[in-house]
Amino acid sequence: MTSPTPVLRLRDVRRVHGDGPSASVALDGVDLDLHAGELVAVTGRSGSGKSTLLNLAGGLDVPTSGSVEVAGERLDGLSRTRLAELRRRHVGYVFQADNLLPTLTALENVALPLELDGVAVGAARGAAQRSLERVLGPEHAGRYPDQLSGGEQQRVAIARALIGERTLLLADEPTGALDEVTAEGVLRLLREAVDAGAAALMVTHDPAQAAWADRVVRLRDGRVQSAVTAEGSEVAS
Amino acid sequence: MSPLVLPPTQLTPLEQGRGDGVGRLARRTQRGQGRRRLLVAGLIALSVLLGVGSAVLAATMARSDATVGVQDRFGTAAALVSGPDGVYAVEQPSDPSRADLTPEQLAWLGRHALDGDLPSATGPQDLPLEVLQAIGYEPVTVAPQDVLAGMDLSAGDVLVARSVQTYDQTNQQQRVLTDLDVTHPLAGTTYDAGGRTEPLAGREGLLSPSLLAALGGEVGQMIEVPGIGPVDVVGTATRSFVRSQQLAVVAPGRAFSPRDGFRQADLRFADAADARRYVERLEERGQELAAALPTPSRDDLAAVGIPPGEQLPPPYVAGNVVEERSDYLSYAVAEESLATIVGGTVTALATVVAAVVGACAFAVGVRRRIREIGTIGAIGATPAQLRRLLRREGLVIGLGGAMVGAVAGLVLAFAAQPLAERVVDRDLQVAVPVVGALLPVVVGGLGAFLAAVWPARTAARVPTTTALAGRVPLGRVPGWLPVAGAVAAAAGVALLAELVVGSTTGTGLDAVQLLGAVLLATLGTAALGIPVIAAGGLLADRLPLLGRLALRDAARQRTRSAAAVAALVPVLAIPVAAGTVVFSEQVQFAGQYGGMVAEDGTPLEALPYADPGGSTLAIVDGAYLEGRQTPPSQATIAAVAAELPDVAGSAPLVHLGARDLQGGAVAVLPYTDDGRIDPVEADVSSIGRLGWAWGDRLALATPELLGLLGLPADAVPADGALVLDGAGASVLPDDLSSLQVVQVERPDEDGRRGQRILGEVVVGRTDAVSGGISPGVLVGPDTADRLGLVETARPQLLRLEAVPSAAQATAAYASVDGTIGAGAFISTAPPFWATSLGIAVLIALAVVAAALGVSVVAGMTSALAATESDGDLRKAVALGAEPSLRRRLHGLQAWWHTVIAAVLGAGLGLAVAWAVVRGTTVGAGYVDDGQVLEQVRATIAVHWLGLAAWVVVVPVLVGLVIAAVMRSSPVTAPRRRMA
What we know:
The complex is a heterodimer.
Chain A: E1 8-17, E2 24-34, E3 39-43, H1 50-57, E4 65-70, E5 73-74, H2 80-90, E6 91-94, H3 106-116, H4 121-133, H5 150-162, E7 168-172, H6 180-195, E8 199-203, H7 207-210, E9 215-220, E10 223-229
Parallel strand pairs in A: 3-8, 3-9, 6-7, 7-8
Antiparallel strand pairs in A: 1-2, 1-4, 4-5, 9-10
Helix pairs in contact in A: 3-4, 3-5, 4-5, 5-6
Chain B: H1 21-29, H2 34-74, E1 79-83, E2 86-90, H3 103-112, H4 129-134, H5 145-148, E3 158-167, E4 173-180, E5 190-193, E6 196-199, E7 204-207, H6 209-215, E8 222-225, E9 229-236, E10 245-250, E11 267-268, H7 272-291, H8 298-303, E12 321-324, H9 325-368, H10 370-379, H11 383-415, H12 417-424, H13 434-461, H14 464-468, H15 480-501, H16 508-527, H17 529-539, H18 545-556, H19 558-592, E13 607-609, E14 616-618, H20 622-625, H21 634-643, E15 666-667, E16 680-681, H22 703-709, E17 738-744, E18 755-762, H23 781-786, H24 806-816, H25 836-878, H26 885-918, E19 921-922, H27 926-929, E20 936-937, H28 944-965
Parallel strand pairs in B: 7-9
Antiparallel strand pairs in B: 1-2, 1-12, 3-4, 3-10, 5-6, 8-9, 10-11, 13-14, 15-16, 17-18, 19-20
């Protein structure tokens, strides 16, 4: 069941890199709504604009034109400080690999967004412990990233992305470096988080992974080529 | 996708064909590494520049110092002979001024020249016997009558004879008839005979034939001699002469011929007792001189293995030392080789910094190119080829940087010569030590090469698959490394201590030892930072996020952090070492003027000596007896004065300086109630250059002297005695080297008062041995202005604004330092930089300057660290961290590295300072007193507050600077890998 107010809204978003003859259009007039409880997969070939879309959604990049709203707040015009705050409190990131800071333990990595937000260390670690135990056993809490497998690292990353009251999850090829079994486990976690009420935008080029999504948006040359439901029905992006 | 299957775009094209594929590959793979290579090359160039520049500057200064030092010591003399009577300069035997004197005359003159002057500017007539012997003349006993041989004299004739007025150790006034002074007009109309002033009988005298002819007179006539008056010319004579005059009356009926002998009885003095004493002293002196023989020649010394300057054993007279200019020159020249040491040391330190930072740069370069290196390995390069590939880069960078640095260093050294001349206030001639200039080039180039060796070795050992995956295993620091570091640091300090304390002649071996000591001490100390860095990572658990990230990252990248600390240790150690040495010298210097007074204030010694004219005392205290020639303390003078009955209730004794008065402390007393003057003086006979060691019937200061001192004439009693407060003295700089001191005689019956210039008083000259400033003469402000005196920066010295009263001087003296001896210095308004506030400002400036300098090095290591941590920081920013996290993180890490380096560097600096200070000797140079250089060790003094400020403040400033110059992290997502 999706909520009426989208967690993420892109309207006529256009992103051009460079200028003059060397300018390249990464996104060209993209519209996208993402509601809570919804998992949307973004697919497309290399250079279609998937990563740009993800960066814009998380406030890591600014559109050349158009608007991006997260939790009802327009990102354009926000200061860097406000954007950072937005990312800390509302957005969870899962990257393809190297998600974790190598100098922090698994528990500390999960607690990182809260600590960055000024939450007391004890409270942050308590919340992190709870989040981490949803994805991994407690024995992993004190381990450093280089002591974890790739799948365990991705699970920790998901735990970090889910900590607190995050409403938007952005995953960039979250299973790209994992084997099939581990990838499935990670995707299941994502699905569970979405079913629990989060909104997730996942970039993938693997149709099998896209099948976990409620909706698949296909990009081509920076434009939405198609948007279909899991059943295959055409819908608006 | 298997990591072994790489997209075509990731392959580096390998050129096929003949030649060294690795070499070509090295060149191609180095594209894009320009900035890092420039950084390392620049660092090497900088270290070599510093080393070459320092070596050239040190050689230039050493050569100048050697030249000036030799000149100061020897003047024009070929050698110095020091004996019981003082130090005598020996001119070249081929001195043409002696051509007219026969050996017998030279010998005779030498025997009877009792004046202990340094006759470097005079002829051989004043040479004492020892000197004559030193130049190869055998002692010859010549009777006084030989002087008169050949002269046609008649009974009743008055001989105007020149004599040297000298004083022996008992301060007996001697009149030594040397020769007839007939080339000059008569000077003076009286002579001193047995304490009375006698007029010249009938104004009779002898004139030289040339003067007589010039005056148009004849023998037997009364001739008006300009400046003298009428002279009854009784004869003529032609002989050379010296100095002052005395006269003897020839007994009636005595005729002389050149071949006749002259018996003692024929020589009369107006006062028979004087004559008797004169002859007796003459004979005694001759015997004394004979007893002092032999004084060996240089060859004699060499034959028995005694080097110049060393105390001679029996049967030679104790204290006779022959020191030749040529030997001293060779020693002085050896100073130039110290320039090699200086340049080598600076280079070693700079190269350590450069090599360490360079190693960081190479290591980072390896990490960034690890996939490329893995690809090369996958294609087929052997580990040896990989190592060669990376080492080649280091060699090229090192040699290029070293050559650039060498040229720049030479150019800078030449360009800095005018400035250096202005600073040291003398002409300098640039000296380029070949070894000293080459050493930095070799060391710098080698440093860069070695900086690349370790990273190359590391890269070649990474498994290919690991490298292709872009991972570099964390460097493991061996557990024994800190222990080895401690041992190496201790060994380095021990080597340095041995080098400083032991004799050093500046040989190449000393240079190698010093280089080794510096490298061992520096690198060993830096290695001690490793366990501290590791401990920081463990302790970080409790810290807030920023601190946790910074310290954990430093501990995790232990090799990089240790390198950063290693680069900072020498930079932070050197100022601590230099500052501690200087501070110790200051403390030692102040202590030197403490005087040798027992704790209860009694002087260590006071020696009486006989004076037929009255009681006189030599104020000599233990310091003087030990040859240090420091002035007697106030307590000493006061205690001696208390023993003089005639001065009860008089003004305090004064001290007109000792050190540059060549060994004697002089005090002046006013006339006593019965009109006598009882001067109290110390033993100045050892070096009598000044010639103002006086007897018991002379005033010591004249209006002229007062004028030179800038004192009002009415401050001195009419009879000429000067009373100065014992504590009121100021030192004069080098540009005022002397004052003329005249001897004022008592007024005669006609009220005329003769004046005689006794010589020049060397006042306030800096001590060439210890660098201290000797006490001198009181100078009033007007005199100081007129003479262009420069206010000294020493805290104890300054120009007196006014002649202080006894109470003022005592108060000022007590307020400055109770250990400063009388006649030394008083301080009423020290210069700003000598005050506590001034010193605090100086320390603050030094800390800020050091922090900026350290920041440069810290910035380099931080920049290199940033290249490794930027990926993690981008992640953190993507997760919501403020972009300023990057600046704050590196600022904190820089602080952490600097704190560790500051603590270790302070320890190293103190250890080095201890070694240097222990090797410092205090005491007078041996030339002055004929002894070998004293081996009294100085002690170290630490300015703890300054040290604490150094350790605490500098790291904070460095951290702030780094945080300020670092850029914030870009707000971008981490890169995606290509799938």
